[in-house]
Input
Amino acid sequence: MKIRQILGDERLTTSFPLQAYAFGPSPSDSSAAEFGRALPYHDGNHTLVVEDGATTLATASAIPMWQNLRGTVLPMAGVAWVATHPMARRLGHSHALMVRLLGEMREAGHVISALYPFRTSFYQRLGYASLPMARTVTFPVADLEPLLGVDLPGEVDWQPMDTGYDAFRQFNRRLLGERHGFALFPEHHAAGLRDRRDRWVVTATVDEEVVGAVTYRIAGQGGDLRADDLLTSGPRGRALLLRFFAHHIDQVSNVVLTAAPDELPELWAPDLRVRTEAEVSFPGAPPPMARVLAVEGLRGIAVGPGRVSVDLVDDPFIAGRYLFEGSGGRLEVTRTDVTPGRGSSQASGPSATLTSAGLAALVFGALDPLDLAAQRLGSASTEAAAELRSLLPRDTPYLFPPR
Ligand SMILES: CC(C)(COP(=O)(O)OP(=O)(O)OC[C@H]1O[C@@H](n2cnc3c(N)ncnc32)[C@H](O)[C@@H]1OP(=O)(O)O)[C@@H](O)C(=O)NCCC(=O)NCCS
Output
């Protein structure tokens, strides 16, 4: 059994058949031509396979991405297409691939990693913590009628995805810099959205600045308008995009869209009959997960005041003792078990023990330190929990792009 990296059109006969079986409908005549068309969108990914002689038993990939963590944009490994041959499952192949993949992405400089799991417990053991899930929002388009008469500053632009793609990507880049949790695909991968040509894109602009963008498709007359994430930099963008949807009152029944986990759709319009859901199921509708690959790489992220010594346990990459300090609003991290002269005197004071997933839950702002014990993610005294809470306060991350 051997794990190796594959490149280029080796994918056609190794990883792609396993991915097609794991994620697509089957049996199907997924032809060599279809695989060939998909190849350019995978070309910058780091893909590993497990092989037994000439047979590919399992595969996993990492997409080199960027993600905003508390205001700082960091290199992030987006894990995708984890798949094992149906005759080789439950033998530990995916786990082994993941450990190798994360090690190689860490070596390449990726500080954090994110994914959408088939089951959270599997990836929690690999150091990932669950993050809040984006909401699915459903409302009758007729309820947007009051917006039609409102005079709003700004305008909207409506395009098919291929011509609207550049403006959409540019707005994605802006939100990457502004929004905690927001991530960005590299161009080789994102281009797939443009080239599939199966969506419309609307952008909202105020004073020549793009303030909102959403992609969507329509199921047919009387059906639903199904939008993807409602991306906005604030209320003006949201109002302009909703008013655009209101122009479909005589065409579709409902608008179904995805909203950030901290959105409050019940406040979007008077008399809006709206359902806001975050329904988790496995493997179909999981919450996202994220982990830290390099603790020192967190230096400089925005934090509150605090000082706490942390023992990170049970992790092949980041286990060790660290001192976390908030200094001038920025995080200072010192490895205290290996740095000469930075030993016990530096690390004295409140201390906590965290798993890698426990650290991720706090760094990404998903949990309070006192949540950790019940989820077996670590333990902190009341004093250490208070320091950690002040240093890394809860802050709802919004992980875009979706699965
Ligand atoms: C999900 C999937 C990738 C798992 O691959 P796998 O190679 O079977 O994964 P592993 O063997 O590493 O681990 C799977 C489970 O088997 C268990 N396992 C591993 N070795 C085992 C062994 N020798 N005996 C019994 N169980 C074992 C693992 O502990 C794990 O269960 P746990 O999470 O409860 O601990 C595979 O089922 C698949 O391809 N599914 C379809 C596609 C998909 O959903 N991909 C995941 C996207 S995130």
User: Anything to note?
Assistant: The two ends are 30 Å apart (CA to CA). The longest helix spans residues 161-178. The domain at 2-115 is CATH 3.40.630.30 (Aminopeptidase).
